[in-house]
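agent> Task received from the user: take the single chain below, predict its 3D structure, and emit structure tokens. No templates, no multimer pairing.
agent> Plan: (1) validate residues, (2) run structure prediction, (3) serialize to tokens, (4) report one or two observations.
agent> Step 1 OK, no nonstandard residues flagged.
tool_call: predict_structure(input=
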Amino acid sequence: MQVWRAERQIRVPRLTIDRARATDAGMMSALLQVAVGGAIGSCLRYGVVLLAQRLAAPGFPVGVLGVNVIGSFLMGLAVVILAQRGAGQISPLVMTGLLGGFTTFSAFSLEAFMLWERGQAMAALGYVGLSVGLSIGALILGVWLARGFFA
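)
tool_result: status=success, residues=151
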């Protein structure tokens, strides 16, 4: 049986590994970019939806439709411009943060288009159908459960 003495050091394993992988500083930088961009994008979405509610006739979500279409358009511009200019380092800020906060529909649109562009038409159509159908179904289920438990 081994007796541990007070002067003996205990080795604690490191939580990070120094190798070719994402660095802690790089991950924190990307996380900060997503947070800042997301805050800005979410505030912009809120403002656009409020403005649309004041200007448009009630009953149809013009503001949400607008941010989805605008966000998808901007995602298309951003994916090309950032790639052409070698500005991938700000992709977390612009694409995930700003446009993701403005609308998550833009990321959905990009993924569907990329499938289509790669010649995977059936996968693209399936992705669109499943995304819309399952998302609406999940929302209905959530509403139903919440009304059952909290009503």
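agent> Step 4: summary for the user.
The chain has five helices and no strands.
agent> Done.
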